[in-house]
Amino acid sequence: MPEGILIRGRGGIYTARQQDGAEFILRAKKKFRHQHLVPMVGDHILFTPGRGGDEHGWIDEILPRLSSFIRPPVANVTAMAIVVAPQPEPDFSLIDKMLIAVRKAGIRAIIILNKADLGGSLYEELKAQYSGADVRTAAVSAKTKAGISELPALFQGETVCFCGQSGVGKSTIINALLDIETETGEISAKIARGKNTTRHVELFFLKDLCLMDTPGFSLFTISDEKEDPVLLKSYYPEYMPYEGKCRFDPCYHYKEPGCLVRQAVQEQRIHHLRHERYCELLQEQQEAWRNRYD
């Protein structure tokens, strides 16, 4: 039975690619619906090819996933490229939540500033806020190609998912990397938001890299009523040097007296805006935890 990787899926029709580059049109068998399992781009599968010219084949098995995400809906990602830009204005809370999801999945992350040619201090702000967050940052301009040639070295051998708000230039970066032309959009002058031109996840190949282009989004939730809110701090690497050293154990690093994390924030060793957003997320998690049996 042939093995392949799903490179796109639209309306229940999937495209699988074999290692030799051959592509096959497939549908998913009904058994996956009963298993509450939906094929995702990035899935490694076993399949039966179609017999005739226009006849589709079937996905027979979805092989075990190394990682999976609901938003964006992708599987077997090993690195996440979170793309931001001066316009549309970055949503730092969205970045924080995506970093938490990345750490839960146990994969690497990099924050990429696109449209760096527009100038401004955004890149310095990104580096300042995430300096202790165990995440790399890069600045590029897909328009001028500045910094693009340095990206492959950051992801050598990885399956990289490009994600972020609409209009930040995810597709344009991939175009520059692959020297291909896919549909891209511009920023709406009225609402300063990106037109969401990428409507489906798609997987591209560049030497030893797999690159996933995904639709933009502005909403992202991490609230999990089954997860104790005290665990939230474990997704903030900048808090780890102080863990277990506060006056109270456990310490939420929120309002407790004698909290070394709060002291580090006051002494500017942890960025205050990053901590403020953490406190907001913590309150959301605590509310979800309190209402978990409602």
Short description:
It contains seven helices and 13 strands.
Could you describe the 3D structure shown?
The chain is built from 7 helices and 13 strands. It is α/β, with parallel strands linked by helices. It has 3 domains: 62 residues, Nucleic acid-binding proteins (OB fold (Dihydrolipoamide Acetyltransferase, E2P), Beta Barrel); 145 residues, Rossmann fold (3-Layer(aba) Sandwich); 62 residues, Ribonucleotide Reductase Protein R1, domain 1 (Orthogonal Bundle).
What count of structural domains? 3
User: Per CATH, which architecture of the largest domain?
Assistant: 3-Layer(aba) Sandwich
Average pLDDT taken over every residue? 88
Task: Describe the oligomeric state of these chains in a short phrase.
Answer: single chain
- Name the structural class: alpha/beta
N/C terminus separation: 47 Å
Radius of gyration: 21 Å
The count of helical stretches stands at 7
Question: What portion of residues belong to β-strands?
Answer: 15-25%
Element string (H = helix, E = strand):
EEEHEEEEEHEHEHEHEEHH
The neighbouring-strand order within the major sheet is 10-9-8-11-13-12
Main beta-sheet annotation: 6 strands, mixed
The named CATH superfamily of the largest domain: P-loop containing nucleotide triphosphate hydrolases
Assign a percent range to the helix content: 10-25%
Per the CATH scheme, the topology name of the largest domain is Rossmann fold
- The CATH class of the largest domain turns out to be Alpha Beta
